[in-house]
């Protein structure tokens, strides 16, 4: 749960600051907020992206230890150690972003109206970014999930032979949820990273041949991944679905309560100030006295 909250925070970083600035640049057809805002926006966007992939990697390692090495899991992932692991992920994320300031790769790209990582600034640095920020984490996550899948297949065979299974259904559902999160992340980010790798290998020949629409589609497809995780949790995890329903219901009921309260207050005020109501009350009072 701590890792999931950390991943959710990474997804929300871009929504709080960079995305509103992208909309501002889109409406003004250019960047008009200065270099400082551009650097901050690019830094936070990188923080979200790298934080997401490193958190997904941390979750994969956590699931691997929990399912494949269950006996030592409690010792490895105590509450204190888990917090330290999450803190380490964010420290590594910040350290991975800092070289961008020295290379000067955080720049405004008019094609996507964003201050983001420029792939054509340094070929060697772009290759390092793709390898360290994408290929290595993908390899680690793939290894962890392949080992889990092997164990799942073995457990299913044991179930058929009436032996006691090592994996509970709830653990398997949680694993499947995080596996889908990983697969969609890889699908969304692979095109942009492959384009960056191709440009880094031969910038003078490859960069002019990449269609602008292809880069724009791959860029926004990559950052759209931050919006998908909440949907995946809702579709595949019963606990998240129940909480979504509870939140929506509470918001809707609160809205109805506020609306009805406001309407009742308005009706009461109109009745007090209405001349018709005042005359009617006077007539009723005279009738009572005469009777």
UniProtKB/TrEMBL annotation:
UniProt entry tagged with the keyword Transmembrane: yes
InterPro entries: GPCR_Rhodpsn, GPCR_Rhodpsn_7TM, Melatonin_rcpt
Chain coiled-coil ranges: none
Transmembrane segment boundaries: 39-61, 82-103, 123-153, 174-201, 213-236
UniProt keyword annotation of Endoplasmic reticulum present: no
Gene Ontology BP terms: rhythmic process
GO MF: melatonin receptor activity
Subcellular localization: Cell membrane
Chief location of this protein within or outside the cell: membrane
GO cellular component entries: plasma membrane
Membrane topology summary: Multi-pass membrane protein
Pfam families registered for this protein in UniProt: 7tm_1 (PF00001)
Residues of the G-protein coupled receptors family 1 profile domain: 1-233
Record's keyword terms, sorted: Biological rhythms, Cell membrane, Disulfide bond, G-protein coupled receptor, Membrane, Receptor, Transducer, Transmembrane, Transmembrane helix
Similarity section: Belongs to the G-protein coupled receptor 1 family.
Record function comment: High affinity receptor for melatonin. The activity of this receptor is mediated by pertussis toxin sensitive G proteins that inhibits adenylate cyclase activity.
Record's protein name: Melatonin receptor 1Bb
Taxonomic source organism: Tetraodon nigroviridis (Spotted green pufferfish)
């Amino acid at each position: 749960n701590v890792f999931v909250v950390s991943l959710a925070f990474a997804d929300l970083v871009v929504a709080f600051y960079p995305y509103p600035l992208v909309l501002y640049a889109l409406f003004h057809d250019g960047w008009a907020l200065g270099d400082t805002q551009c650097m901050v926006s690019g830094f936070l966007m990188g923080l979200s992206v790298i934080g997401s992939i490193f958190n997904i990697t941390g979750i994969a390692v956590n699931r691997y230890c929990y399912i494949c090495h269950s006996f030592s899991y409690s010792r490895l992932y105590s509450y204190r150690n888990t917090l330290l692991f999450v803190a380490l992920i964010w420290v590594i994320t910040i350290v991975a972003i800092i070289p961008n300031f020295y290379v000067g790769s955080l720049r405004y790209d008019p094609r996507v109206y964003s201050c983001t990582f420029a792939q054509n600034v340094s070929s060697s640095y772009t290759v390092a970014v793709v390898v360290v920020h994408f290929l290595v984490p993908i390899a680690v996550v793939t290894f962890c999930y392949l080992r889990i899948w092997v164990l799942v297949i073995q457990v299913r065979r044991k179930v058929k032979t009436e032996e006691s299974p090592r994996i509970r259904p709830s653990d398997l559902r949680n694993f499947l949820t995080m596996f889908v999160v990983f697969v969609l992340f890889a699908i969304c980010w692979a095109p942009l990273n492959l384009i960056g790798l191709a440009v880094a290998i031969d910038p003078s020949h490859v960069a002019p041949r990449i269609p602008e629409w292809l880069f724009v589609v791959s860029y926004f497809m990559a950052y759209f991944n931050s919006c998908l995780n909440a949907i995946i949790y809702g579709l595949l995890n019963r606990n998240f679905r129940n909480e979504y329903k509870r939140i929506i219901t509470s918001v809707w009921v609160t809205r109805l309560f506020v609306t009805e309260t406001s309407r009742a207050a308005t009706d009461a005020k109109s009745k007090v100030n209405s001349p018709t109501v005042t005359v009617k009350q006077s007539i009723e009072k005279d009738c009572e006295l005469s009777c």
